[in-house]
Design brief:
heterodimer; A: 305 residues; mainly alpha; MetI-like fold; 17 helices; B: 358 residues; alpha+beta; six-stranded mixed beta sheet; five-stranded antiparallel beta sheet; 8 helices; 23% helix; elongated
Chain lengths: 305, 358
């Protein structure tokens, strides 16, 4: 729908301007507050003009929340989750789209319905698994009576234990499964013409060669779009890292540290430092989005083939 | 070079049979064209040879070795697809060389072979372009080069020229013919274009509704169609076919009582039996009223072809088409007299459409 009239143009621009304003204003307030001194930030009403204390607030926040190591943790987790998600999503979509096996539709729907089960819903069982990743196997062995048998025969008590608490593995693995990514890849793979698959078969390519030589290069823009979404969402994870890390000092992520930056109830109300800290923490995802924007839009909208 | 032997091959999708049992022997080095209307199973047959479709029943052997259970890559066939099926993200060089790369042929040798093949289809200046930057004809040449570079035992072509314009199609046809002459590789070519089929084939296989109607040399198929379907399908303009029967005097009665004097069919005239009489338009001549056995007809319309023209006429309720080379002008509505060439008559059974020998 393309309509050209001055009134319509005005209305469109107005709507866009309001939208942009609503999106940008929180960032502006964060930036402004982060650049003010304690006195300036405590004024009522607050000033919407930036001041000159940005640098000292940034260093204060950096020191207080121990952001150096935490940034590294966040980066490891976000990159780990992103890479894991893309690998898993592309491989599972590959299996679902290109292989004709029994239960392929069931597999697809099983993956698809997990869209309706976000981490928050299944957090208790997920925690139980993270506390001992081998628990399901233990249960199977116990139920089948195998552990009893082993105990009776050899006298060895079978207890499987693999604790993921306070580890990068624990932070990353439970977040890696992704229905969204699998779905996105599936949709893309279904646009690949059958003739291309057959041509590669005739050329003697095995499935894995077809995957790496043809599918992956063709899905590059998709992959980058997915990576952007996944990086931002895993950087922003709060609940899961909070739950699985008791050792904050070593395995805390920056988003968890936001809480450490909030002034204590009876302490100094230095919101300027909090805001400066927030600026630092939101910088990496902002940079990623800004850098990947071109690919991001292309990957989600057009199919360049 | 390998011969291909197809024995009792059937194909069903779920429970629906699409190919009802095909037996064909293809000699080594032969150029075979499978011709038929769309949906007749010709592409399915080709894809079964290639290994892209399972064989429901029967046996396909390439070079004496049964390949039913072999993967496409183990059969030694190369295929050219209708929509080219080039890898869009690879350059022409990479496209052509991909099968060699997969086969782990060393880089130097690979480059040399790609170059040699590219030269043979005059693509050497396009090697660093991507398929998206090429014209349809160039893309089809890349697809052919990609098939050739593997030095396969068998070439399979799946309607490769149907996306090209008429002029290019003729040029590509000549190119395929030349390549076959130079390489001598057994080739199976699927098409629904009869001109393409007639000009390319050493041996023609005509298929219809999952059955083989006739196998033979193009001229043989044209001059002695084995069935009403082949007679109707091969030749442009199509053969005139009249349904009718012989009367007691030996005349062929058709349409609304029109009679033809067909003395050359003496041997097979059975009065009262329904048959189909066929005659090609080029065997229908314009003649004079007094000619023995001339058929009177009223011209419906005339198609001008330049060197010749097609006269569509009505002979007692039967439509008849004559290819006329006479320069005298002729208008619709005129009464003309036509005669059928004596040795160009074909007779088919009404029940099963098979040829009745005479």
């Amino acid at each position: 729908m393309i309509e050209r009239s001055p009134v319509f143009d005005f209305l469109t621009y107005l709507a866009m301007a309001i939208g942009a304003f609503l999106v940008v204003i929180p960032f502006w307030i964060t930036l402004v507050a982060g650049s003010q001194s304690l006195q300036e930030v405590s004024q009522v009403p607050i000033s919407l003009m930036p001041s000159s204390h940005l640098w000292e607030n940034l260093s204060a926040a950096w020191a207080r929340a121990d952001l150096g190591p935490k940034m590294l943790n966040s980066l490891i987790v976000a990159v780990g989750v992103t890479v894991g998600k893309i690998t898993l999503a592309s491989l599972s979509a590959f299996a679902i789209v290109f292989f004709n096996f029994r239960g392929r539709m069931i597999s697809f729907w099983l993956i698809f319905i997990t869209l309706m089960l976000p981490l928050e819903v299944r957090i208790v069982p997920t925690y139980a698994i993270a506390a001992n990743a081998l628990l399901p196997f233990q249960v199977i062995l116990d139920t089948l009576g195998i552990s009893w048998l082993v105990n009776a025969v050899s006298g060895i008590q079978v207890t499987l234990n693999w604790n993921l608490l306070n580890s990068y593995t624990g932070l990353i693995l439970p977040l890696v499964a992704t229905a969204t990514g699998t779905f996105l890849y599936r949709q893309f793979f279904m646009t690949i013409p059958d003739e291309l698959v057959e041509a590669s078969k005739m050329d003697g390519a095995r499935p894995i060669e077809f995957f790496f030589d043809v599918l992956l290069p063709l899905s590059r823009t998709n992959m980058l779009a997915l990576a952007t979404i996944m990086f931002v969402s895993s950087w922003n994870q709060y609940l899961w890292p909070l739950l699985i890390t008791t050792d904050r000092a070593n395995f805390g992520t920056v988003v968890m540290q936001l809480k450490a930056l909030i002034p204590a109830q009876n302490g100094t109300p230095d919101w300027n430092v909090t805001m400066a800290g927030a600026l630092i923490i939101m910088l990496p995802p902002l940079l990623v989005v800004a850098f990947m924007q071109r690919w991001f839009v292309r990957g989600l909208i057009s199919r360049d083939k | 070079m390998s011969q291909i032997s197809i024995k009792g091959v059937k194909k069903s999708y779920l429970k629906t049979p699409v190919i009802h049992g095909v037996d064909v022997e293809i000699e080594a080095g032969e150029f075979v064209v499978i011709l038929g209307p769309s949906g007749c199973g010709k592409s399915t047959l080709l894809r079964m040879i290639a290994g892209l479709e399972d064989i429901t029943a029967g046996e396909i052997a390439i070079g004496g070795k049964v390949v039913n259970q072999l993967e496409p890559r183990e059969r030694g066939c190369a295929m050219v697809f209708q929509n080219y099926a080039l890898y869009p993200h690879m350059t022409v060089r990479q496209n052509i060389g991909y099968s060699l790369k997969v086969a782990k042929v060393p880089r130097v040798e690979r480059d040399a072979r790609v170059m040699k093949v590219a030269q043979s289809v005059s693509l050497e200046t396009f090697l660093d372009r991507r398929p998206g930057e090429l014209s349809g004809g160039q893309r089809q040449r890349v697809a052919m080069a990609r098939a050739m570079v593997r030095e396969p035992k068998v070439f399979l072509f799946d309607e490769p020229f149907s996306n090209l314009d008429a002029k290019l199609r003729v040029a590509m046809r000549a190119e395929v013919r030349r390549l076959h002459r130079d390489l001598g590789v057994t080739s199976v070519f699927v098409t629904h274009d009869q001109t393409e089929a007639m000009t390319l084939a050493d041996k023609l296989i005509i298929m219809n509704a999952g059955n083989v109607e006739q196998i033979g040399k193009p001229t043989e198929v044209y001059n002695n169609p084995a069935s009403r379907f082949v007679a109707d399908f091969i030749g442009s303009p199509a053969m005139n076919l009249f349904e009718g029967e012989f009367d007691a005097d030996g005349h062929f009665v058709h349409g609304q009582g029109g009679k033809m004097n067909v003395s050359q069919l003496n041997g097979v005239r059975q009065p009262g039996k329904k048959v189909v009489l066929g005659v090609r338009p080029e065997s229908v001549r314009r003649t004079h009223a007094e000619t023995h056995g001339a058929i009177a007809a009223v011209v419906d319309y005339v198609e001008e072809l330049g060197a010749s023209r097609l006269i569509h006429a009505d002979a007692n309720g039967s439509r008849i088409v004559a290819l006329d080379t006479d320069t005298a002008e002729i208008k619709s509505g005129t009464r003309v007299h036509l005669s059928l060439e004596a040795d160009a008559l074909h007779l088919f059974s009404v029940e099963n459409g098979r040829r009745i020998a005479h």
